[in-house]
Every structure is written in C-alpha cells, then in structure tokens.
Amino acid sequence: MELSFLSLTLFFFTTMAEGVHWPEHVVCSSPHFQLSYASCDPFQDVGFTLNPCTDLHVQSEFNSTISLLLQHSIEELYLSLDLLHGDQKLLHYDEYLCLHHLPRFPFCGRKKGELINHDWPLKIKSIPFKGLFNIWIQLLNQDGYQIACANVTLIHD
Ligand SMILES: *[C@@H]1O[C@H](CO)[C@@H](O)[C@H](O)[C@H]1NC(C)=O
Ligand SMILES: *[C@@H]1O[C@H](CO)[C@@H](O)[C@H](O)[C@H]1NC(C)=O
C-alpha cells in the first residue's frame, strides 16, 4: 500500500517535471549573433530583451530588461552561471546580487508576489570564441529557493 503510494507520488512528480516546458524565446537573430533562451524553472517563465540586437563585432553596449515574478522573497540573491561549449565547461561564475547589508540593485528586498522589471545596461567586450554556446543561469535566494533558471543558447561567428 505504502509502496504503491510512493511510486504513484514519484510518477506524479516525474510527470510534472517533464510536463513543464516553457517556450524557447528568440531574443536576437542577426546573421552573426543569435541568442535564445528557455526557462528551466518548473513554476515560471522569465522575460528577457536585448537592444540593439546587432552583431557583436559592431556593438558592445546593450540595454537589456529582465522581467520575472517572485515566488519567494529576495532579501539575498545569488547568481550562478555556467558557460558551456559542447561538453566543455569554459567558465563557472558565482556572485551575490543582493545581500542584507549590500543591496546592489533596486529589486533587492522585494517580496513574494512582486513583479520585477529591471533595466540592465550591458557591456559585452568582443567574445573571443566562435561557435555555439550554452549558458546555464540560476538565481537562488537566502533560503536556497530557486528564483529563476534559464538555459541560454548563443551562436556567435
Ligand atoms: C540605452 O537606453 C538609453 C535610455 O533609453 C539610451 O539613451 C541609450 O542610447 C541606449 N543604449 C543603447 C546601446 O542602445
Ligand atoms: C538547453 O540546454 C540544452 C543542453 O543542456 C540544449 O540542448 C538546448 O538547446 C538548450 N535550450 C535553450 C533554449 O537554450
């Protein structure tokens, strides 16, 4: 009895986890620079825009916006990023975006249920690599809850 309940629960969670597939969003589609992403969070999609969407050889300054609904408060917010090229991990990067005593962004301290719409000026120095890259980005709060997760594909040649 207990065993069948457990397997049913497992089946349910597995089905749920596999059932959630957020759409792939194409952010940029210019000849030498393509950027797309999909949310890898089971509970929500995330919005991202980049302007202008031109060749990285020509442009190095961009305006980006990030939109997401908070499922948990973010007194603290922790960013974790992996840059992958094929099977190779080129870079792992961890950073605090919000700390209690060091709120680096206006959204730090926002509560569950609030919508974040943040304009983020980006400076991208020319990328020394060419090809297809996957970037895995995760945001965690002070209690280890996932705030957002995105799987980014970047093609640069
Ligand atoms: C970013 O936005 C600001 C304000 O709207 C604008 O003045 C600036 O030219 C934009 N930068 C780029 C690179 O488009
Ligand atoms: C997500 O990551 C997988 C590899 O882990 C990749 O095959 C897929 O294209 C990625 N999707 C997006 C939208 O970045």
TrEMBL record:
Q: What is this protein called?
A: MD-2-related lipid-recognition domain-containing protein
Give UniProt keywords alphabetically: Signal
MD-2-related lipid-recognition domain location: 37-154
Query: Signal peptide: which range, if any?
Result: 1-19
Q: Which domain of life is it from?
A: Eukaryota
Under InterPro entries, the record lists: Ig_E-set, LY86, ML_dom
Q: Name one GO biological process term.
A: innate immune response
Task: Identify the SMART domains for this entry.
Answer: ML (SM00737)
